[in-house]
Amino acid sequence: MADTKITSGYDGLKLPYSPAAEQAVLGAVLMDADAISRIYEILPTSEYFYVSTHKLIYETMIKMFTQGKVVDYVTILETLKMDKSFDEATGKTYLISLAESCPSISNIEEYAKIVREKYEIRMLISASRDTIEDASDGEVAPEILIDSAEQRIYDIRKGRSIQGLQRLSEVLLQTFDRLDLLNKADESVKPIPTGIGDLDRVITGLNRSDLILLAARPGMGKTSFALNIAKYVSCTVKKTVAFFSLEMTKEQLASRLLASEALVSGTKLRTGKLNDEEWRRISEAGDILSKANLYLDDTPGITVSEMKAKLRRHKDVDLVIIDYLQLMSNGGRRSDNRVQEISEITRNMKILAKEINVPVICLSQLSRASEQRSDHIPQLSDLRDSGSIEQDADIVLFLYRENYYGNNDPAVQNATDIDKAICKVAKNRHGETRQIDLHWQGEFMRFTGSEGRSEE
């Protein structure tokens, strides 16, 4: 009944598998319906099996298990009889032989691990073959070849490459599990707060796999706002943050963080002219920041592929921040069509957010179009080199300070408006769009929400 022929792989290399282990797994499930729950995480799909008949049997078992049906010899046989590719006469005998050939139900996890290991070796052979073919063509840049090879290995390690189409019922079970964890206030699934309460209430915090675009005109405070979030998430929420800066050095970022935390003028930090009280505050701020899980990278012209490689090597990152989009490279040959390049970068960033399953905040510049309007408030059409930026982003935030344009306008030179700022939620896949009032402390290069200002 079972097709046990070994198919040759690359250059006649035989692909390894263990028919005995595959049979033992299936036999154990036939003998004990609860056994499948013990191996489901090890073998979540039938793709791990090599023999086609074993794939068919295990796929049926998984389907019945997720539907809450009893999984045993009789129910499996009746379900398989509906599949025209299953021979009832010989199939009945084969199912019986599977149950009889299982050495021990208690060892099913070990049998499942053998099946998985053989599958991973087959995938490794396949990935190596594809890498050799790509390299032999001579048409792909070395850095792209290296990243592609890393990605293939990473996919095998994470088990991504074995995931096919998934039935809605399975996804619903995962959704209910996540809701249950949220109800229990499990920190592993809760969105990450930004530190701006009004903003968190609108966007529900920073959600996993989201690409969040933070855009503004130069000098509006994008980097300061991003650093405020990074500091809050790493220091207060105790999460791990990776901050990629393509514009500023790591030392400049650290200086800004010190100024914001110690409430010491950034100008004084650059000149070093500090009094004793300011030195004390700087020392205390340094002690707080040194305990933060905040990692800085200032590689110029970094690509999404290079970021991905660094993030794969640095495990357990909870938030990624990139400053900023227009300084990034797509890793290929320079094109005259910058809009197309930016579109490719944003698509890759959205893929990155989904693959590593963390929120990614990317800063972006705006075109001069907003300066031509009387109110100067940014719109989605102002996104520079827009292309697919708006489509790829889950959330788009605009920073706007009226005083940025009104330094010579007496109407805005008053105590109530000079420090006023707005964070405009222009796109939000999770809810409403609206404007959030902020308070800008230019001396310390930081933004606070209405809660933070009232506390001060």
What does this molecule look like?
The chain has 456 residues and is an alpha/beta fold. 47% of the residues lie in helices and 11% in strands. It has a nine-stranded mixed β-sheet with strand order 3-2-4-5-1-6-7-8-9. α1 packs across α5 and α10 crosses α11. The N terminus is likely disordered.
How is this fold's topology laid out?
Blueprint: H1 19-31, H2 35-39, H3 52-66, H4 73-81, H5 88-101, H6 108-137, H7 142-158, H8 168-183, H9 197-203, E1 211-216, H10 222-236, E2 241-245, H11 250-262, H12 266-271, H13 276-290, E3 294-297, H14 304-313, E4 319-323, H15 338-356, E5 360-365, H16 389-392, E6 395-400, E7 420-428, E8 435-441, E9 446-448, H17 450-455
Parallel strand pairs: 1-5, 1-6, 2-3, 2-4, 4-5
Antiparallel strand pairs: 6-7, 7-8, 8-9
Helix pairs in contact: 1-3, 1-5, 1-6, 4-5, 6-7, 7-14, 10-11, 11-13, 14-15
Features:
Rossmann fold, elongated, 9-stranded mixed β-sheet, disordered N terminus, DNAb Helicase, Chain A, alpha/beta, 456 residues
Helix proportion: 40-55%
Q: What is the correct CATH architecture of the largest domain? A: 3-Layer(aba) Sandwich
Fourth-tier CATH superfamily name of the largest domain: P-loop containing nucleotide triphosphate hydrolases
Largest sheet: 9 strands, mixed
Question: Strand-residue fraction?
Answer: 5-15%
Q: Going across the biggest sheet, name each strand in turn.
A: 3-2-4-5-1-6-7-8-9
User: What shape does the CA trace take?
Assistant: elongated
CA-atom Rg in angstroms: 28 Å
Taking pLDDT < 50 over at least 5 consecutive residues as the criterion, the unreliable ranges are 2-10, 408-416
Number of separate helices? 17
* CATH C-level label of the largest domain: Alpha Beta
Which structural class matches the secondary elements?
A: alpha/beta
In total, the number of domains comes to 2
CATH topology of the largest domain: Rossmann fold
Termini separation (Å)? 76 Å
